[in-house]
Amino acid sequence: xxxxxxxxxxxxxxxxxxxxxxxxxxxxxxxxxxxxxxxxxxxxxxxxxxxxxxxxxxxxxxxxxxxxxxxxxxxxxxxxxxxxxxxxxxxxxxxxxxxxxxxxxxxxxxxxxxxxxxxxxxxxxxxxxxxxxxxxxxxxxxxxxxxxxxxxxxxxxxxxxxxxxxxxxxxxxxxxxxxxxxxxxxxxxxxxxxxxxxxxxxxxxxxxxxxxxxxxxxxxxxxxxxxxxxxxxxxxxxxxxxxxxxxxxxxxxxxxxxxxxxxxxxxxxxxxxxxxxxxxxxxxxxxxxxxxxxxxxxxxxxxxxxxxxxxxxxxxxxxxxxxxxxxxxxxxxxxxxxxxxxxxxxxxxxxxxxxxxxxxxxxxxxxxxxxxxxxxxxxxxxxxxxxxxxxxxxxxxxxxxxxxxxx
Length: 407
What we know:
The protein has helices at residues 7-10, 103-116, 183-196, 229-241, 292-305, 370-383, and strands at residues 70-72, 78-83, 86-91, 94-98, 120-124, 131-136, 139-140, 150-152, 159-163, 166-170, 175-178, 200-204, 211-215, 245-250, 254-261, 267-272, 275-280, 283-287, 309-313, 318-322, 336-339, 346-350, 353-357, 363-367, 387-394, 397-403. The protein is an alpha+beta fold.
């Protein structure tokens, strides 16, 4: 009998609608931690947690691409505190994870960590925490009780791979985590799985996980259930097409930059590291420093215009929004605008670097390299952008985006 797990089709990335399609038995609601032990399928044993004898072996001598930054963790010091508009998980006096306005998810994470009792905790993801993992005295975090929201990972084929312009963590069966353009972080996640034998990913939060973490569970013994290759290929293709974080497709260039699908109704403002930010889930779209009013103006623009995609490009961090794949054509009155003619754009040297200039000789955007500048010109001409817009008075604390006014 072919066994097909629909669960893999819903887990596309740690941001966006990850578990929106995750099926639960009829009438069952997502439960709080701790999860009740379940009867395991034939061929899987439940070892003693202190000395598991059938966990994945791992590769303890594997050299990781990046140095691990592990925080000492004492489960007795875990707490959840509200700071500004965010619920933050602390270990001792150190912030471990920001859950935004999701108090119940923060409390679930505390309960999960108290059950697992790791002594060290690592986070992968510099701009946003994509996945986390725990160790117990340097050993992989071993779980002998089924977790309600989790997915198995094949550590023999787990790898970092570029899909539609972004780097993902995947195996031969499924795509699990999306790292955007951060190749090194995707490779670090794959290395951590192999090094410690992590063969599962757990999630906190339903239907949109606020936190993902690696752990190890006992492996099946004498299991003959092999996935059907045709069904696996179809599932993988569906996942690739439904990724909520991809590169920006440009004819003749392939994928460039990064494109994030957003729901304007779920964009919010909150405090992050002492600053007001415009955010969509764990993704910070832009920062406004101490200007709450500028942040609120930007939120109103995003929601009134009903933007559906947020895009970033280049080392200078050029940002813009799309509406169902097209350039916005209406500029709100609260946004300051500067018009240009896309056909006259040119790339020129600028103070030892490069810049994109308009026909009047004004610098519109800096570029790290000449190639990056030329790609930006093609990108702007493809969408026919002809106006740079800004919400907020300070250039360093504002929302900048491009629009097509149709002059």
